[in-house]
Amino acid sequence: MTIEADDEISRSIIFDKAFQNSIHVDKVLFVFGQSKEDGRSHESAILRRLAPEDTDVHRIGCKIAHKQNQRKNPPPGPKRKYYCGFRTAKYNNMQLSGDKWEIFLTIAPEDGEESHVDVALMVHSEDRNERATIKTDAGLALAEAFGPAVEYVCECDHGDEHHPLHKDPECLKRGLAPVDVYYITKQF
Question: pTM here?
Answer without folding.
Answer: 0.88
